[in-house]
Amino acid sequence: MFRERGIEIKTPEQIERMRAAGLVVGEALELLRAAARPGVSTGELDALAEDHIRSRGAVPSFKGYAEPPFPASICASVNDEIVHGIPGERLLVEGDIVSIDCGAIVDGWHGDAATTVAVGTVEPEALELMRVTEASLWHGIAAARLGGRVSDISHAVETSVRAEGPYGIVRDYTGHGIGSQMHQPPSVPNHGRPGRGPKLVLGLALAVEPMVTAGAQDSVVLDDDWTVATLDGSWAAHFEHTFTLTERGAWVLTALDGGRERLEALGVPYGGD
Fold first, then answer.
1. What pLDDT, in 10s, does the model give residues 155-193?
2. Residues 6 or more apart from 16 whose CB is under 8 A from it?
3. Percent of the chain with pLDDT over 90
4. What mean pLDDT is predicted for residues 141-165?
């Protein structure tokens, strides 16, 4: 079922399929978090992700996506790379941070999530950047209420980041609706005033994905036509989850626990089973 502006509203059964896809993604990211060590290549991480996704009877969302076709099953963006890094021969080294974005399709329905991982021992400033970015993701999801608006999420993400210091919030790339396609309306920016945009209703699924930099928010697309890096060379972090709202509250479809721990820590009800 579709509503105005091309927004797709899912049935409960379709949301359950998205949960199945989300669990495949969540499991893959846990495997990659453990595997991201000094001396491991981003291509090896990609192979591990694809093997896991296919072993679960799912299909990688990213492989062959768009034009030029994305050549891998994950995005692996290191240090000053914000998003869409192409995995390959690059070896991770002690002190790197790597943003890993992963998507999977189960029975035609998508899950999409990302995490940023510290490789070995990293500088405290990089760990703090990661903490701030991940916290803003959860504040955004926690702000979602049935009857609210998409920009309530955006405002909560921005407010969370701004409270932590002079970080850059990337504006050229946003979260998005998700369901039978990976990217659907509506866009979910990481900044803005509350109370605007489409209404949050049952059956709507959104991918929220703050991208935060240690410097300015300006970005550039590199020569591979995919990798997005900071213009000033500052490091970036990226976290993402797919979620929906039930009558009880938020249900994070790509979190292995459905988001219960983080949502309850923020004092909001958990909407999953």
1. 999 999 999 999 999 999 999 999 999 999 999 999 999
2. none
3. 97
4. 98
Residue 3 pLDDT: 54
SS (H, E, C) the chain: CECHHHCECCCHHHHHHHHHHHHHHHHHHHHHHHHCCCCCEHHHHHHHHHHHHHHCCCEECCCCCCCCCCCCCEEEEECCEEECCCCCCCECCCCCEEEEEEEEEECCEEEEEEEEEECCCCCHHHHHHHHHHHHHHHHHHHCCCCCCEHHHHHHHHHHHHHCCCCCEECCCCCEEECCCCCCEEEEECCCCCCCCCCECCCCCEEEECCEEECCCCCEEECCCCCCEEECCCCCEEECEEEEEECCCCEEECCCCCCCHHHHHHCCCCECCC
Question: Which of these, 225, 199, 222, 203, lies nearest to 16 by C-alpha position?
Answer: 203
Neighbours of 44 (CB within 10 A): 18
Nearest-angstrom CA–CA distance, 78 and 90: 9
What single-letter amino acid sits at 145? R
pLDDT grade, residue 273 (50/70/90)? confident
Amino acid identity at 235: W
Cα of 104 vs its chain's centroid, Å: 13
In this prediction, residues 114-137 reach a mean pLDDT of 98
| Cβ–Cβ < 8 Å for 184, 195 | no
Of 226, 186, 236, 233, the C-alpha closest to 208 is 186
